[in-house]
Amino acid sequence: MTFKDFSFVPELLDGLDAMGFEKPTPIQEQAIPLILDNQDLIACAQTGTGKTAAFVLPILHKIFSSDKRHLNTLIIAPTRELALQIDQQVEGLSYFLGVSSIPVYGGGDGETFVQQKRALEQGAELVIATPGRLIALLNSGQIKFNDLQHLVLDEADRMLDMGFFNDILKIISYLPAKRQTILFSATMPPNIRKLASKILTDPKQVNIAISKPAEGINQQAYVVYENQKKNLLKNILSNPDFKSIIVFASTKENVKTLEKELVYQDFEVKGFHSDLDQSEREKIMIGFKSKKTRILIGTDILSRGIDVEGIDLVINYDTPSDPEDYIHRIGRTARAESQGTAITFINEKDQRKFFRIESLIGKDIPKLEIPESLGKGPEYDPSKNRGDVKKKVFNKQKKNFKKRRPAENKNTPS
Q: Can you give the pLDDT at residue 17?
């Protein structure tokens, strides 16, 4: 199947050709026809499967095909980074269409707020917004969505994790009841289903590889003591085969500390955290995308808000507490069916966290030997200190979990 099979307008196909896109991914194959048919949609797809284009392409086709041009589509995203990423993809795909779009996000000075407000008042056809800034603009009473035809909630699970449930409902109260609503989420917990029942009408559902890392990711782990992690990190980063790297740490303080130490060791590295203002973040991202910066260090804010091709290594310096965050972190590599490596450092207190990750993805991740120069690491035993009886129960639960695990989705991208 190719994009020509969707009968897109020629100008949109020209944009796809210019960006080098030829064949749709599985989520695009399934979602695009439903969106073109004006169906409400719940789509559950893992990171890196092409979900942004899955909703942007059919919406651009419909906007361009419409006789009346107005504020047509609202896309709500959890972070400014994701809003900017979506806007950049809209700009690329709509290059030959002349469709106008604007990202609306918080931060910056008062002039930024005024510029965003003015652009909305003048009628951009497609708005990509974070919930907080959009509510502030709606409260001004001068922004109207009377003719809105499409509402898209991207990374809805992340928005609810960030506490935006009531904000989303408030925004929707400003929108016309008759519209097409599209909800994309990496996971489908109960709060997402609750939201969907409130805002969608007879939705179709598409599920692609829920909670599974992309097949192209080579997952590895090192079992280490905490005081071995920094030297192990430097050892791995010294491998010239890895050209573009993201390192995930648990806190912004860890990000700052690692950045200082690696800069001192002459690594090309930048830290990305919430203490930076928007202009600093954008400058860092431009440097990383252009390969001027080899290593980017950040917290989980990066795991869902960055879309950069060619990242060949992700390092979890700190084991994520939530197994779903692990999926999103390592999903920064091996995007769109490419290959990549993901390495996780597991200290003694994080071993049970890592066991939960392995249980979620249904496989044991290889534990590599740390270099002899760093000394011997601890044994990997997530049942440690639970007693003999508890250890037997623990191992039995692991065995039963593997028996219960459903067959892998046949639509998983290869």
A: 87
Q: Which domain holds residue 137?
A: 3-208
Q: Give a yes or no: residue 325 inside a domain.
A: yes
Per the listing, tokens 């011997």 go with: 376
Task: Locate 296 and state its tokens.
Answer: 């980017």
CATH code, 108: 3.40.50.300
Please state the length of the chain. Answer: 414
Distance between CA atoms of residues 168 and 315, nearest Å: 33
Ranges of the chain with pLDDT below 50: 385-394, 396-398, 400-414
Residue 411 lies in a domain: no
pLDDT computed for residue 414 by the predictor: 31
The confidence score (pLDDT) of residue 158 equals 83
Strand partners of residue 181 = 151
Angle at CA of residue 78, ends 74 and 80, nearest 5° = 85
Q: What is the pTM of this model?
A: 0.60
Distance, in Å, from the CA atom of 324 to the CA atom of 319, rounded to the nearest integer, reads 12
Query: Please, are residues 106 and 82 in contact by the beta-carbon 8 Å criterion?
Result: no
Phi first, then psi: give them for residue 315, nearest 5 degrees: -120, 125
Angle at 137 between CA 134 and CA 138, to 5 degrees: 85
Could you give the number of structural domains in the chain? 2
Residues 281 and 323 reside in one and the same domain: yes
Helix spans in 67-187 (H): 80-93, 110-122, 131-139, 156-161, 165-172
Residue 352 φ/ψ, nearest 5 degrees: -70, -35
